[in-house]
Hints:
The protein is an alpha+beta fold and 119 residues long.
Amino acid sequence: MPEGGKPMTYVVTENCIRCKHTDCVAVCPVDCFYVGEAMLVIDPDACIDCGVCEPECPAEAIKPDTEPGLEGWKALNAKYAALWPNIAARSEPPEDAAAWDGRADKLLDAFGTADPVAA
Ligand code: SF4
Ligand code: F3S
């Protein structure tokens, strides 16, 4: 546990949107991924911070929340983990996943806002 006693978690960030490779799901030991139409999220309360999903993501979309600037994405993950269904098995990514990799403004495009807290 990091300084301050606050549990850490891993979070899914913008580049998951419309890439959805789901390699992350296949390795999570506690099945704490949830799936929406455009992206996946991690339940911060269930994540045990093992870190094995981070290197599995071809889109490099999974980050530890100890990285600066991810507060909004942690909030987005927590919000949608409570609303979306659990996903515990890998599925085929969208056919155009490669075309979406690294594109700008994916959050705005998918959620209608550039602010993850407002998404
Ligand atoms: Fe699952 Fe571990 Fe990734 Fe957390 S860090 S989402 S427990 S694989
Ligand atoms: Fe998304 Fe990467 Fe998982 S693109 S679905 S976080 S493997």
